[in-house]
Amino acid sequence: MRYMNNATSRRPQPLLILTPSHETEIQSALLCCRDHGVELRIRSGGHDYEGLSYFSSSASYYIVVDLFNLNDVQLDLESETAWVQAGARLGELYYAIAKQSTSAPMAFPAGICPTVGLGGHIGGGGLGTLTRKHGLAADNVLDAYLMDARGRILNRKSMGEDVFWAIRGGGAASFGIVLSWKLKLVRVPPKLTFFKVSTTLEEGDRSNKLIHKWQRFAHDAPEDLFVRTVIKANNKKTIQTTFESLFLGTVEKLIPLMKQSFPELGLTAGNCTEGSWAESTLFFSGYKQGSPLEVLLDNTEIQRAKFKAKSDFVTEPIPESGFEGMWEIAMEEDKPIVILEPFGGRMSRIHESYTPFPHRKGYLYNIQYLVKWEGDGVEEEQRHLKWMNKLYNYMEPYVSKSPRAAYLNYRDLDLGTNSVDGKTSFSEASVWGAKYFKGNFKRLSETKSKFDPGNFFRYEQSIPPLFHK
């Protein structure tokens, strides 16, 4: 499923959309743009929350390089690695891993949606069901090929460790065009367990108490267990809370664990499904049980609903009264979604400066707020955006502070944008940069100053060179 950003129809259209089948075509386009003062946008084939990979609100002239044809996946099972071109989608990677690692099952820790483009996903971090066990997608990258502003193709050694660090979670499009990633695959058991259990507020305050208990349980649980919470309001009538889980083991091992640590959920073996890691990716993507793996390759389902998203990180459990206020606001909107995804496990053991993604130890979970609508017109759009801002403002006392953190892959231009002339200073950009990267933002800016001093790779929230005033 690919989402269309809400404001793209009012932005200037690109001069050209290039769909290269070879890196030399990208090189020619890049050099042409550089010589003629035309901005370049890079799309890795998936979706973009604010449309920055395929639209520009600042440039009069720009072209889009869409990498979806560069989607080759080459696995080396002996070394447990894979070279994957940046235009490949997660579904294409997952399919290749599932088909080729049958005797010794392997996986890659990345996102849930199969149509997400791998290039941008890793460039922003990459959360998923295996994050508590193996870290982010960006934590599991061994090498990369990157095209710089001069059209050179560099690997990890030739680009240098600072740049290699920066492109793994710091917004790779600020530094160049990632052509391919070398990934470290991870081993998984042949049989895993997954479940979805739903409750509604019509069942009294059970949902509220379950979420309150979930906050500590999901963070402190064994790292083999991932349990996220998806909250939906249905046509302003009721709130549905769904607990979705992946366990790296059998039902026989999961049930005693849940009865001991989260008995309030009332999980039974009848709620659970056992299957392979590949089957779990279908489960979380919403496909029916028994669907063939080939559906992971289907890129034709495009949802053109307009939407707006925001994100938060939580460091202390939110009180039940806090969730009660959230429910009240959620009931004012037709179909809002709030997703809570737990951290802990290996994420707590990785230092916040290991990659640019700093939200590690001390963070209980991430929140994504999402609202979608189908109507046209500015008035309709503003109504939904106003609701989103109301919810976001309400949550401020309950989430991380100094700064109020945000996740780059849930891009939010409301946090701040660069100036149109491309000369935003580090201090000006820190308004939004510190929320995504905390103390890592300065190192990103220093790296940008050395690697792309002319700021060729720029957009509304690109990393600015440190020396810009």
TrEMBL record:
<keyword id="KW-0325">Glycoprotein</keyword>
<feature type="domain" description="FAD-binding PCMH-type">
    <location>
        <begin position="10"/>
        <end position="188"/>
    </location>
</feature>
<dbReference type="GO" id="GO:0071949">
    <property type="term" value="F:FAD binding"/>
</dbReference>
<comment type="similarity">
    <text>Belongs to the oxygen-dependent FAD-linked oxidoreductase family.</text>
</comment>
<dbReference type="InterPro" id="IPR016167">
    <property type="entry name" value="FAD-bd_PCMH_sub1"/>
</dbReference>
<dbReference type="GO" id="GO:0016491">
    <property type="term" value="F:oxidoreductase activity"/>
</dbReference>
<dbReference type="InterPro" id="IPR006093">
    <property type="entry name" value="Oxy_OxRdtase_FAD_BS"/>
</dbReference>
<dbReference type="InterPro" id="IPR016169">
    <property type="entry name" value="FAD-bd_PCMH_sub2"/>
</dbReference>
<keyword id="KW-0274">FAD</keyword>
<keyword id="KW-0732">Signal</keyword>
<keyword id="KW-0285">Flavoprotein</keyword>
<dbReference type="Pfam" id="PF01565">
    <property type="entry name" value="FAD_binding_4"/>
</dbReference>
<keyword id="KW-0560">Oxidoreductase</keyword>
<dbReference type="InterPro" id="IPR016166">
    <property type="entry name" value="FAD-bd_PCMH"/>
</dbReference>
<dbReference type="InterPro" id="IPR012951">
    <property type="entry name" value="BBE"/>
</dbReference>
<protein>
    <recommendedName>
        <fullName>FAD-binding PCMH-type domain-containing protein</fullName>
    </recommendedName>
</protein>
<dbReference type="Pfam" id="PF08031">
    <property type="entry name" value="BBE"/>
</dbReference>
<dbReference type="InterPro" id="IPR006094">
    <property type="entry name" value="Oxid_FAD_bind_N"/>
</dbReference>
<dbReference type="InterPro" id="IPR036318">
    <property type="entry name" value="FAD-bd_PCMH-like_sf"/>
</dbReference>
